[in-house]
């Protein structure tokens, strides 16, 4: 852990953005209200055309500008310049409970072997079916963790030690890069879910409807649990589409997957 007397912050909160002027203020305000204040905010912006950068600067964030490289590469770029000894990956549509950073600091402070933590997310403005599904999803992935000891983190909230993240090269440009990295690292390092914390997120991803939204979970389950499906044409097409969602190409129309 960082020396408490150091001028370097304990946490570097990393937020990738592209035209997030509507939701970003909510996240930054929830960070400002934290009971624990030893942090910096890095906004990795992919050349937004709205007021995203101005809003981020107004909240005292460090802003770096990328050029259409996508969500996970943007997170990697921010991690390279982070000062904190623990990286906290989150999203512009997230709201942090007031004591979240305090709880995270305590967990890392108590356990020098702890490499990373993640927690359930709850869509505060989604339809009832989505709220139920989020709950069931995190119940399932937590059960899988206790059975397999492989973590399935989400960058809605994923905290891990900076040194380890840099040593591993960060997120790879693949679908489900966050859960993939956490599964890989949990085989050799202590990365675990924390059920005493919760992150609140916008339900905007569920607005595509229950069928389209569940393509994501189906593809992830097939990739993680049923490994023999990984070579299927449908799963390859779905993974390519998911990679597109994390770049500027997320605004394009879905192409029909080829079998």
Could you please describe the fold and organization of this structure?
This protein has 259 residues and is an alpha/beta fold. It has a single domain (11-204), classed as Spore Coat Polysaccharide Biosynthesis Protein SpsA, Chain A, CATH 3.90.550.10. 40% of the residues lie in helices and 17% in strands. The chain contains 9 helices and 10 strands. It has helices spanning 24-32, 52-58, 71-81, 100-110, 128-148, 162-168, 177-186, 210-224, 233-245, and strands at 11-17, 39-45, 62-65, 86-90, 94-95, 114-118, 121-123, 157-161, 190-193, 199-201. A 7-stranded mixed beta sheet has the order 3-2-1-4-8-6-9, with helices on both faces. It is globular and about 45 Å long. It starts with 10 loop residues before the first strand and ends in a 14-residue tail after the last helix. The model is unreliable at 1-5 and 245-259 (pLDDT under 50).
CATH class equals: Alpha Beta
Number of domains: 1
N-to-C CA distance: 49 Å
CA-atom Rg in angstroms? 18 Å
* Range of strand content: 15-25%
Identify the CATH homologous superfamily.
Answer: Spore Coat Polysaccharide Biosynthesis Protein SpsA, Chain A
The CATH topology turns out to be Spore Coat Polysaccharide Biosynthesis Protein SpsA, Chain A
Low-confidence stretches: 1-5, 245-259
* Shape label: globular
**What is the assembly state of the chains in this entry?**
single chain
Could you report the average pLDDT, rounded to the nearest whole number?
85
Percent helix = 40-55%
Largest sheet: 7 strands, mixed
- Count, helices: 9
Structural class: alpha/beta
- Name the helix and strand elements from N-terminus to C-terminus, one letter apiece: EHEHEHEEHEEHEHHEEHH
**Strands, count:** 10
